[in-house]
Design goal:
Blueprint: H1 13-20, H2 24-33, H3 36-40, E1 59-64, H4 79-83, H5 89-92, E2 114-117, E3 122-125, H6 134-137, E4 140-147, H7 153-162, H8 172-180, E5 190-193, E6 218-220, H9 237-258, H10 262-285, H11 292-298, H12 305-322, E7 327-330, H13 346-370, E8 377-382, E9 386-387, E10 399-400, E11 404-410, E12 418-419, E13 421-422, E14 429-431, E15 434-435, H14 436-446, E16 456-458, E17 461-463
Parallel strand pairs: 1-7, 1-8, 4-12, 4-15, 5-6, 5-7
Antiparallel strand pairs: 2-3, 4-11, 8-11, 9-10, 13-14, 16-17
Length: about 475
């Protein structure tokens, strides 16, 4: 009588290969791991990649204005608001779309004067005295007819960052790393300089989604130790090296046992990058080589603390570009109220926000020009949507995704141009209407990537940042 009442299940080929990988397969793997060339042949998601065509830019600095700046108080001059201030917009504009809170008040004029600046004659409000300087404003291309599909922060943030209003899609910074690789193996290819505010939607705004984890954003804080645990705990570097070699062997064995797994490979890459960052990050943060004039230019000596914080972020962004980091995103500092989201206290909130960013951003553009980096660095300024031209309550503005302003400067952008137009109220885009997909397509194009060809196979289809959409904003291309 057999010892086992049930016949043994025949081993499947997959099971045999998986089990044997830790047996005689591991012997061959061990040999390979000692061969530097063979080890390098293992898939490297961060390896530099050739663009589809000649690129105008190599790096991106994305200035993320969390909360939605008011276009009619910053860059979209609408004199009609002053003429009809205090009137019912339903009588003047007609049918209005629902807003986030459906608290639609009277027409609200801007509390800041607008003037034409530079040779380009760009309309800019008095909120931006530094950005208004001719040598700065004439580098900027305004797009005043941007639109979003979402009027709620979380979905609009996902849409701005990933081209989808749903959580879990790769951020644009991850797509740039996927399409082009990194130029500096000692730093991440996608760095988020977090001023203190994580946006609605959380860190998924900077995630890699279904792309390998090596492409996700690494969040740095603008302080002496921008990354947690950057200092090794081991007293002897040999001990740390031995630990890392053991971890590497275990990781490679796991990878061999499981077959090709992009997430495991990405995690291995992140461990290796983290090790190299122990020397590169302290060097990045060491500003002793920066002159006092440069520090003052960025506002590091300003009276307002948030100007200092954002100034340091902008200076670090330039230093990251110098070190070959592909995509750098800056978020807003805390302490200005509710970001740019002024449903009330518009004057106070926008005044503080502009005081925070005006001098540092102007300094960034000046400094990139001075160092010759502006030609190869694309600078983008954008929020997730704009604000209504009528009041919420007495002194606020609600969300407006139907027409708002973003701007670009640097790498391949034609400075001094103004593209698109909203209606006479600054409410809806009426000429050259663009979507976030078009912004993404244009950004990729300037770095030499055809957005229709930068795809990743996931869930049975070829995915891309622009999905099945996206047209170039050709008017801003130099």
């Amino acid at each position: 009588m057999p010892l086992h009442p049930f016949p043994p299940r025949p081993i499947q080929r997959r099971d045999m290969l998986r089990r044997c990988a830790m047996g005689f397969g591991a012997v061959a793997l061990e040999v390979l791991l000692h061969d530097e060339l063979a080890a390098a042949a293992i898939s490297d998601p961060l390896a530099p990649k050739s663009p589809h065509f000649s690129a105008k830019a190599r790096n991106v600095i994305f200035l993320y204005m969390d909360g939605g700046p008011s276009q009619v108080d910053t860059f979209d001059h609408k004199p009609l608001l002053e003429r009809y201030h205090g009137r019912d917009p339903r009588e003047l504009i007609g049918e209005l779309a629902p807003t986030q809170f459906d608290n639609i008040g009277k027409v609200l004029k801007s509390q800041w004067a607008f003037r034409q600046r530079g040779e380009s004659g760009a309309w800019v409000s008095d909120l931006f005295p530094h950005l208004s300087a001719p040598e700065v404003i004439d580098e900027i291309a305004f797009v005043k007819s941007m639109t979003s599909k979402f009027s709620e922060h979380t979905s609009a943030n996902y849409f701005l960052h990933s081209g989808s209003g749903l959580q879990g899609r790769p951020s644009m910074g991850a797509w740039f790393g996927y399409g082009l690789g990194t130029m500096n193996r000692n730093l991440p290819g996608f760095v988020v300089l977090n001023g203190g505010l994580v946006p609605p939607g959380g860190l998924d705004c900077f995630g890699s989604g279904f792309l390998p984890a090596a492409y996700q954003g690494s969040v740095f804080l603008p302080r002496d130790q921008p990354v947690a645990n950057i200092q090794p705990q081991e007293s002897d570097s040999r001990i740390q090296k031995n630990k890392l070699e053991l971890i590497a062997r275990l990781d490679r064995a796991t990878l061999a046992a499981s077959g090709h797994d992009a997430q495991i490979e990405g995690a291995i890459q992140n461990y290796e990058t983290a090790f190299r960052m122990q020397s590169s990050v302290p060097e990045l943060m060491d500003l002793r080589g920066e002159s006092d004039a440069v520090k003052k230019l960025y506002g590091l000596e300003a009276d307002y603390d948030n100007t200092k914080t954002f100034g340091l972020q902008c200076l670090l962004a330039r230093r990251l570009v110098e070190r070959g980091v592909r995509f750098i995103e800056l978020t807003c500092p805390s302490g200005n109220g509710d970001r740019w989201d002024q449903h009330n206290k518009l004057f106070d909130g926008h005044s503080k926000n502009c005081l925070t960013i005006d001098q540092p951003i102007a300094a960034l553009i000046r400094d990139l020009k001075r160092t010759g980096l502006l030609e190869s660095t694309l600078v983008v300024w954008a929020g997730e949507f704009g604000r209504t031209p009528f009041a919420q309550g007495n002194d606020g503005r609600d969300h407006n995704p139907y027409g708002f302003t973003i701007w670009m400067a640097g790498g391949g952008v034609k400075g001094g141009v103004c593209v698109g137009e909203t209606d006479e109220w600054g409410y809806r885009a009426v000429r050259d209407r663009f979507e976030i997909f078009d912004l993404h397509a244009t950004m990729l194009h300037l770095l030499g990537v055809d957005h229709t060809r930068s795809t990743y196979r996931f869930s049975g289809r070829d995915m891309r940042l622009t999905d099945v959409h996206g047209n170039l904003i050709r008017q801003v291309l130099a």
